């Protein structure tokens, strides 16, 4: 009996000590620290859909400069890579052979004019003599025929002189357009052939064209009312750039759909400084649809990927993060439109699931989504043209 009482007392004492230890541990443990996370309310903005196309820039005017006469290059009158104006002398050929031809023809014309004067005088005398029956009709007609021959000879020589003077003028090879000149393909002292030797090339630098093909379905659904006269705005990005910094407009729409490809050829023109755009450059064109609709906008970095799905973390009750599947739309700089999965008023973790996950309680730090420098539509010309993508 005593043994049983002693055992019971020992058990009670042990339980009491364990309870005191648990209470002491609970009192000494610190309260759980919640992760501070930046959160923001989603934005609702009027947006336009963007369509992107690739192209290479083309100059409105490009000339492969060839001589009009054959000869020897006497001098080169331009600096390679310079801007030239229409009418500037670029190559000078040896003009002496052409000047000699001109001088010879002028001398022949002087002789022909003297012969013509003599033929006119003899024709007048023949008319007087014929009236007095002093010569026969055949003799008078022969003198008239000689006069006509002298007139024809003079006209032929004058035409030859005009051609020779043109050839002499063409020994100065001039620029036919304003633009930027390339290097000289043929140098001083070389013989060149008329219409065959390519001396250099010149491209116009006043504007640049960008041709691109829009598929028939997209054109009919988004741009069916667009004409060349409406000057539909486009923006462009060159290789190595992050912004679509160049603004242009559509100035040509082809007159038919290409039945082989189902596309419509469109041309945009960009009137930029000559040092900014170069013919042959690869470029990306963005064209905004005319229709405008409201869309939910969130930061691109707020979006996570889960296999084939995209999701965001929203702030639910008691500041616990929740997993939300979304469907994304157009990108606008560092922001992205969401077409389904979110509603106006939803609050999301703006930095995405990098440090947190669904079901985690957080300490929310409210921030504002930055939209500065981002154009959601092209209606406001003062806005910076479509930011980075």
From TrEMBL:
Residues 102-167 form a coiled coil. Pfam families: Beta-barrel_RND, BSH_RND, HH_MFP_RND, RND-MFP_C. GO terms for cellular component: cell envelope; plasma membrane. Residues 294-352 form the Multidrug resistance protein MdtA-like C-terminal permuted SH3 domain. One of its GO terms (molecular function) is transmembrane transporter activity. Residues 232-289 form the Multidrug resistance protein MdtA-like beta-barrel domain. Keywords: Coiled coil, Signal. The keyword Lipid biosynthesis does not apply. It is a lipid-anchor. Residues 103-171 form the Multidrug resistance protein MdtA-like alpha-helical hairpin domain. GO terms for biological process: response to antibiotic. Residues 1-18 form the signal peptide. Residues 63-198 form the Multidrug resistance protein MdtA-like barrel-sandwich hybrid domain. Belongs to the membrane fusion protein (MFP) (TC 8.A.1) family. PANTHER family: ACRA/E-RELATED COMPONENT OF DRUG EFFLUX TRANSPORTER, CATION EFFLUX PUMP. This is Multidrug efflux system membrane fusion protein.
